[in-house]
From TrEMBL:
GO MF annotations, alphabetized: carboxy-lyase activity; flavin prenyltransferase activity
Species for this entry: Salibacterium salarium
Protein name: Flavin prenyltransferase UbiX
Entry keyword annotation includes Cell wall biogenesis/degradation: no
Family, as annotated: Belongs to the UbiX/PAD1 family.
EC class (word): transferase
Keyword Cytoplasm: no
Length: 200
């Protein structure tokens, strides 16, 4: 590890777009940052439906995705003994990506029924970065109210809305743009997309 190694929590929920969470985790691990990974039950279903992953053995699935990185710890959502359940365990931030509207509602209203929601609550109470990446459309009034409530209480909202000024040519270009914006908010360097104003 280097002196710049950081510790993050990444939570993947049941909204469409699990690939965003996977790509973010890959990039953080590539840079040797420590990642605590949480995947909701609906998130595992999205792994199967959108990415055609075999999730019958979840640890094997994660091993194949992340090559059993020494910097990755995955947690059961009911394991409240996990370090990230306590504010005394120091991290550099948490990202819920993608963030379902159900998860958003629980976080915005302080309902800690799982380790995911508890970890989010810890980040808010400790004034650490909590990034929520909603992937839903259209949004109704309840969604908008919960986004506003979460933001007013310290969460940073980063909608999964890729830009097009970098002239994306592939699906990966669109995914990398969103993940790059997340990394920017975490103050983690990357080269996932070409920035506006940079030389070609």
């Amino acid at each position: 590890m280097t002196s710049t190694t950081k510790t993050f929590t990444v939570a993947i929920t049941g909204a469409s777009g699990a690939i965003y969470g996977i790509r973010l985790t890959e990039e953080l691990l590539l840079q040797q940052h420590h990642v605590h990974l949480l995947v909701s039950e609906a998130g595992w279903q999205v792994f199967r439906e959108e990415l055609n992953l075999d999730t019958s053995d979840r640890q094997t699935c994660l091993h194949r995705l992340f090559s059993s990185s020494d910097y990755l710890d995955s947690h059961n959502l009911h394991d409240f003994k996990a370090p990230i359940a306590s504010g005394s365990y120091r991290t550099d931030g948490m990202v819920v990506v993608p963030c379902s509207m159900g998860t958003l509602s629980k976080i915005a209203n302080g309902t800690s029924g799982s380790l995911l929601e508890r970890a989010a609550d810890v980040n808010l109470k400790e004034r650490r970065p909590l990034l929520l990446v909603p992937r839903e459309t259209p949004l109704n009034g309840i969604h908008l109210e919960n986004l506003t409530k979460a933001e007013k209480n310290g969460a940073h909202i980063i909608p999964a809305m890729p830009g097009f000024y970098h002239l994306p040519e592939t699906k990966d270009d669109l995914i990398n743009f969103v993940v790059g914006k997340i990394l920017d908010s975490l103050h983690v360097d990357h080269s996932l997309f070409e920035r506006w104003g940079s030389e070609k």
